[in-house]
Write a structure and sequence with these properties.
Number of domains: 1
Number of strands: 2
Helix content: 55-70%
Shape: globular
Order of helices and strands: HHEHHHHHHHHEHHH
Amino acid sequence: MRKGSRDISEVAHRCIGAFVQNRLSPVSRSAAFLTIGLAIAGPVISIGTNFSFTTLPNIVHLIAAVLVIDVLSRFAPQTRTVVTVQTLLFGILYLAITCVCAVVAAYASQRFGLPLRDQFFADIDSALGLNWLEFVRWVDKHPVIHQIFHWAYSSLSFQVALPVVVLAFLNRLNEVRVYVLAFALALTLTITISALLPAAGPIAAVDPMTFDIMRFTGATPVEHLMRLREPGQLILTDAPGGIATFPSFHATVAVLVPLTLRRYRGLLVILLMLDAAMLAGTITEGAHYFCDTIAGIAMAFFSLAVAKRLIAVEDRISAFALLRGTDSPLRPITSQNSSEQPEML
């Protein structure tokens, strides 16, 4: 009986320990704060402007799967493989949740109905000597180039997840933390700027049916934008798409991903070719002004630089807390390959 009691007690102890032990996560405090901000802003603005969705991406199954796998992994030896899986799961889950919150916030923020700034952006392109219509007409006459741009433009979701996958398997948790924070920061700033400087994009000034093969499938839904700007209650029954024009978030991702993975030269060469086509695709497929793309490129460099500084500050605060003998939600990372990992918030 005593042996059976000890066995039951041991099993119970392991079960409790699996739930209460610290979780490893690539999500920093700053990244969590940004996503919480998006999660609050979207519904608050929606309620205040009488706006609601009937269709949104369903990530409930993803959340459930991550939580189940995470709990099961608590019972396995905490090897490098298990830590890699945990980093990958929470990294992908964070990106998915952030993107859903961003969609709601992006659409809701357009309800403010600030004046469209298309003429302003068109004037910038003209000052730079760039002509959107001429470039798109040229691509329209070259089906192979159009197909390359279309395929590259459609690789957004894959590229967003790629740094988390690669860095998780290489056990570069600190770099994952920087990347997901840079992604969240760029997405939040893009939504904010596009709300203050809304635009329909150059596609609003032309008839898509006048092109032979161009259909601008990735462009901001002009119909959605105009409906969002109407006063009164709005219930959107269509599936949401991209709603930001300036800056281009596709352009941001096309630069942020190779910047994050620049140390891995074999992969970098492939990404540079893919993302060069993706940047061109923001003009054709996404129907962005050239200045949208330029601003998106600048956003990538800015968000990555800020993310590195914020992560460094968080780690210094954690190190200071440990020196004072207090509990801290993060452990400092002493090197890129350190086995010491920050704990989940």
